Amino acid sequence: MKIQQNYIKLWIAFFLIAVPYLHAGVTGKISGRVTDAQTGQPMPAINVMIEGTTMGSATDMEGHYLIMNVPPGMYTVTAHAIGFKKVSYREVKVSIDLTTKVDFQLTEDVLEMNETITITAEKPLITKDLTASTAVVSSRDIEALPVTEFREILELQAGVIDGHVRGGRTGEIVYAIDGVPITDTFDGSTVIDVNTNSIEEMQFVSGAFNAEYGKALSGYVNIATKEAAESFSAGITAYSGDYASNHTDIFTAIDRVDPLAIRNIEGFISTPVLSDKLSFYGNVRYIHFGGWLHGKRVFNPWDITINNGPAEPVESRYIIQQTGDGKIVEMNWNRKLYAHGKLTYKPFTSLKLNYNFMADLVDYQDYHHYFKLNPDGNLKRFRDGYTNILGITHVLSSTTFYQFNVSYFKKHYKHYVYENYADPRYTHYRLLNQQPRDVPSFFTGGTENQHFDRQTSTIALKFDITSQITKNHQIKFGADLSRYELRFEDIDLLQKPGLPDPAESGDPFAAMRIPDPDDPTEYLAIDRYTRNPVEFSAYIQDKIELQQMIINLGIRFDSFMPDGQILADPSDPDIYQPKRPENIRKTIGERREYWYKDATVKYQLSPRLGVSFPITDRGVFHFSYGHFFQIPNFELLYRNPEYKFPVGTGNVGIAGNPDLKAEETINGEVGFSQAITEDISIDITGYFRDIRNLAGTRADEIDMFGGSGSYSQIVNSDFGFVRGIVFTLNKRFANNWSAKLDYTLQSAKGNASDPTATRFFAVNNQLPEIQLIRLNFDQTHTVNASFNYVSPANWGFSLIGKYGTGLPYTP
User: Fold this and answer.
1) How many CA atoms lie within 13 A of 556 on its CB side?
2) Nearest one of 549, 698, 530, 534 to 611, comparing CA atoms
3) Phi, psi (5° rounding) for residue 125?
4) 437: helix, coil or strand?
5) How do beta strands 180-181 and 737-750 pair?
6) How far apart are CA 291 and CA 786, in angstroms?
7) Cα(621)–Cα(673) distance, integer angstroms
8) How many CB atoms lie within 10 A of CB 376?
9) Any residues with CB less than 8 A from the CB of 497 and at least 6 apart, and which?
10) What is the pLDDT of residue 307?
11) Could you tell me which residues are beta bridge partners of residue 555?
């Protein structure tokens, strides 16, 4: 612990030194040249401004200008000089981390009529400074898509298959809001599912991303949220619906349509508060999703089934109590309340403060087939997420600015049948085992007796600086420090001893209690721990913008302090039930002094390279390569942290490993983009992923002292190799319609699809794989398509479609 505190002090000192001289990728820039339309000569000292903002720049002696730190969105950019007509380009699109080129040719205003020439800017079909595969989805694109959830947008991107990106496992994606990573490090999921109406732009990078992006192996999702507009606006939308099917042999009562089974209502407000100084954007949404899987309340949890022993026919063997009301109930439902508020304060032209708050509160239930006729005995689930991000952006000069972010986010997940441990409605454990065993059957009573509660919170500091040090070189440097707190509690409630069989007593209820963690007969039924790991990262990268080439070159440093313990003697793992005689003779307190060792600090360096250069007037070649590291999800590090195992023979369980090294992927891709017409472009990209040191289990189990049993432990043992090619055909909006089609051909192979696969083979006396085989989520052919039409009368429609070949181990 002292070592960890010293490291924290050292890193904080580093921050304090760096900040006076010190932006993650949440803004873009506009650059170009102003020339005389008649002579073609450069025009120095010309003001180029973004209308409606204080952002602008003056041209240099060669007519070049640069406007940095521009949030993503659509703008009107104007150039004006005395004696010349003002020229304005409208609908200038700015995207995260990209450069938008706008060149001006000014003509003399001979009659001095102060005339303004307005030109509609056309976004180039080919983005020349994209060196890695990146999907850029703007708020306009989202409005045109028939999607209601953030994840639906991701699933439409090339290479994404049910949460797996380019053949990677789930949990290998980082999700960032306004440049701040907000991934739940326990399992790699999102802390907040951002509402689509809160998104100004979303970038999904699936290629070899730049050094500023880390802690991910497969992809990086960067979301820029909306800010308030200059004038007041507000709106409200709603929809409702249901699922319908004539397959009543599969779906219970789904042929009866309830138009309010799915109901959604949301609203937004965008308003200035204090003139042009303070503004507010807010978004609120409530949705009830009824789902498509239903049960029937034939039984209540307290119903008792009595087995009368062998009899013919089979149904006469049982006396089954049946007190349910027979009502059809939803069994994969969820209810969500989402709120987002963003305050923007600009006290000076060079300083901007943002406070971003989001809450995502979800109650839901997962379908459990055995509870189909006893739905009230199934677990109820609750997932709450909160984010708080305070961002300060300070412009030091026309070419340099820095950003400092302080963030706190938390995710709280829990499940239970009844919230109170001592709820008198909990039933005797025999009721879950009373259903007829002669044929497959549903539960005819009983309740799940598990209480689970897990909370992950993160406090993070992040500094980034961007400086255009020369016309061709943009340097970015950044560092971040994150401290996590993981609280975990998994309890199997125990009923008070001596309770009679409900079939004999007629009393189905049982008083419950929490297991005693110090009782050798009960301690396996409770698992509690708190961990506080710390992570530090720093990067530097150079974006080199030459006349005929764009180069992104960078390197990243990551370190991780796990705050966990490993065994000093793996052959005697359980401190509560030791096996070596010399350990048995000592107390638990004495054993703790030598039983565990601290896990070590991990370090890694990640070089990154991306190149883009034109090969025709409308074609670009791009290449990217990099090493990527990610600490395994915390659920693998801290699983069974006290190494508790039941007494038995054979393999008796599995333990996590806080001393795991970072998982590694070497990503590379090469591609070609070409504009075919003014509206249609194609992109062909080939990629590979060499995957190493994934968390997994080994076939050679760890033998316990005495040789009576063994156990498995998570180690860096798994590997894989992915290769693929993506073909994209894009027709941008013109003549009232737009469309996109992408096809992915991919091969994803590895030795195991999940970390426990090898142990599963060993426990079942099967030989584990020692060669590359197809992974469970390997889909050879995937096609995504979208179509959008808007009529001149301002009505329209959109369609999306997805096709994929079968997965390797499904019927």
Assistant:
1) 23
2) 549
3) -65, -35
4) coil
5) unpaired
6) 25
7) 6
8) 17
9) none
10) 80
11) 540, 607
HEC string of 277-309 equals: CEEEEEEEEEEEECCCCEEECCCCCCCCEEECC
- The DSSP code for 660 is P
Element (H, E) at 143: helix 139-144
3-state helix, strand, coil in the chain (%, to 5): 10, 50, 40
Taking only the tens place, the pLDDT of each residue in 719-728 is 999 999 999 9
Rounded distance, CA 616 to CA 611, Å? 16
- Determine phi and psi for 15, rounding to 5 degrees: -60, -45
Q: Which of 176-185, 305-314, 721-730 has the lowest mean pLDDT?
A: 305-314
Residue 351 CB neighbours (<10 A)? 13
Sign of CA dihedral 254, 260, 261, 266: positive
Q: Which residues of 141-171 are buried (b: 16+ CB within 10 A; e: fewer)?
A: bbebbebbebeebbebbbbbbebbbbbbbbb
* Residues 92, 23 contacting (CB under 8 angstroms): no
Please state, in angstroms and rounded to a whole number, the distance separating the CA atoms of residues 176 and 161.
Answer: 20
Cα separation, 630 vs 185, in Å, equals: 10
Please give the angle made by the CA atoms of 527, 528 and 530, to the nearest 5 degrees.
145
Dihedral angle, C-alpha 259, 264, 265, 271, nearest 10 °: -150
Query: DSSP assignment, residue 618?
Result: T
List Cβ<8 Å contacts ≥24 apart for 464-467.
464/22, 464/23, 464/24, 464/179, 464/212, 464/402, 464/403, 465/21, 465/22, 465/23, 465/400, 465/401, 465/402, 465/403, 466/23, 466/68, 466/69, 466/400, 466/401, 466/402, 467/399, 467/400
Strand residue runs (E) in 546-679: 550-561, 565-567, 596-598, 602-616, 619-630, 650-655, 663-675
The candidate with the shortest Cα–Cα distance to 194, out of 272, 271, 266, 95, is: 266
Task: Residue 647: name the closest of 523, 473, 561, 796 by CA.
Answer: 523
Q: Annotate 316-381 with three-state secondary structure.
A: HHEEECCCCCCCEEECCCEEEEEEEEEEEEEEECCEEEEEEEEEEEEEECCCCHHHCCCHHHCCEE
Mean pLDDT of 610-632: 92
Tokens found for residue 666: 């070497």
Q: For the chain, give the number of residues.
A: 811
The CA dihedral of 464, 470, 471, 474, to the nearest 10 degrees, is: -20
Residue at token pair 């306009």: 140
pLDDT value at residue 11: 39
Cα 479 off chain centre by: 21
What is the C-alpha to C-alpha distance for residues 91 and 503, in angstroms, rounded to an integer? 75
Q: Check: CB of residue 467 under 8 Å from CB of residue 399.
A: yes
Per-residue model confidence as pLDDT tens digits over 489-529: 999 999 988 899 998 899 999 999 999 988 888 999 999 99
Sign of CA dihedral 653, 659, 665, 666: negative
Q: Give the largest CA-CA distance in the chain.
A: 108
To the nearest 10°, the Cα dihedral for 514, 519, 520, 526?
Answer: 30
| Cis peptide leading into residue 313 (ω within 30°) | yes
Q: Pairing relation of β-strands 116-120 and 86-94?
A: parallel
Please tell me the pTM assigned to this model. 0.89
Per DSSP, the chain holds a count of helices (H) and strands (E) of 8, 50
Task: For residue 500, count CB atoms less than 10 angstroms from its CB and return exposed for 0-12, middle for 13-18, buried for 19 or more.
Answer: exposed
Q: 781-790 and 737-750: which strand pairing?
A: antiparallel
Instruction: Pull the structure tokens for residue 521.
Output: 């007969």
| Distance (Å, whole) CA 452 – CA 429 | 18
- Look up residue 696 and give its amino acid: G
Residue with tokens 């966990």: 564
